[in-house]
């Protein structure tokens, strides 16, 4: 037997696991808008007690993915809720900031990483693998966010981007996804040329059209 000491899984970790699992189910549509969320049912499905599930639902309500009325209902929020519209504006502005900063710092390796991510994105769209498309899209946009070197920007994007995931799933499941491939290419070309204003314009269009192209 391996002679090591491992700590037990703690309640905060169970809470985080419940949060991650329920959030993913909301984002990918397993739990659709308006679906009732009963802590007992969710706890049974996840193999957890009610306490971490309740805490997860409170966090998801803070995120805008769940809406709740005391003694009445707890359910998945609408895709086009006011919280989503607000999140889109925050995410767009922060990506514009990141791209503006990255335009001054992009090296050939960074451009190559973005092009490779866009190739994976296009392949995932062709295969109708939406989870892979979302992952590749994240990898592409994370390059300028990383180059910007601003921890607050990265943390805020991590906080608000999940609100837009359902819109991304819908877009990447449709023919509009190919518009995203083309816009990614334009963004990468502009960054490679250190053309800051064009890069900022393209990234603004990418996030604005996440709602407009519906």
From TrEMBL:
It comes from Amycolatopsis melonis. Pfam families: FCD, GntR. The keyword Oxidoreductase does not apply. Residues 12-79 form the HTH gntR-type domain. Keywords: DNA-binding, Transcription, Transcription regulation. Gene3D superfamilies: GntR ligand-binding domain-like, Winged helix-like DNA-binding domain superfamily/Winged helix DNA-binding domain. InterPro entries: GntR_C, TF_FadR/GntR_C, Tscrpt_reg_HTH_GntR, WH-like_DNA-bd_sf, WH_DNA-bd_sf. This is GntR family transcriptional regulator. It comes from the Bacteria. CDD domains: WHTH_GntR (cd07377).
């Amino acid at each position: 037997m391996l002679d090591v000491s491992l700590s037990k899984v703690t309640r905060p970790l169970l809470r985080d696991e419940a949060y991650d699992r329920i959030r993913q189910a909301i984002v990918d549509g397993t739990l659709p808008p308006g679906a009732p969320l009963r802590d007992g049912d969710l706890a049974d499905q996840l193999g957890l007690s009610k306490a971490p599930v309740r805490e997860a639902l409170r966090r998801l309500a803070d995120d805008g993915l769940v809406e709740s009325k005391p003694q009445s209902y707890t359910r998945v929020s609408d895709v086009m809720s006011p919280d989503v519209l607000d999140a889109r504006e925050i995410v767009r502005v922060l990506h514009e900031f990141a791209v503006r900063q990255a335009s001054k710092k992009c090296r050939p390796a960074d451009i190559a990483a973005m092009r490779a991510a866009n190739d994976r994105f296009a392949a995932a769209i062709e295969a109708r693998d939406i989870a892979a498309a979302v992952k590749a899209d994240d990898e592409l946009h994370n390059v300028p966010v990383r180059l910007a070197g601003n921890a607050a920007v990265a943390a805020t994007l991590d906080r608000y981007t999940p609100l837009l995931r359902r819109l991304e799933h819908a877009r990447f499941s449709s023919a509009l996804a190919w518009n995203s491939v083309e816009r990614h290419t334009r963004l990468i070309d502009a960054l490679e040329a250190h053309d800051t204003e064009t890069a900022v314009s393209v990234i603004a269009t990418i996030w604005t059209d996440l709602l407009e192209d519906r």
